[in-house]
Amino acid sequence: MFAIFKRELRSYFTSLVGYVVIGVMLAFIGLYYSANCLVYGTSDFSTVLYSTTLVMLFLLPALTMRSFADERRNKTDQLLLTSPVSVWGIVLGKFFAMAAVFALPCAVDAVMIFILWALGGTVSALLANLAGLLCYFWLGCAAIALCEFLSGLTENQIIAAVAGFSALLLAYLMPSLRSMFNAGSAVALAVFTGIAGAA
Question: What is the pTM of this model?
Answer without folding.
Answer: 0.84
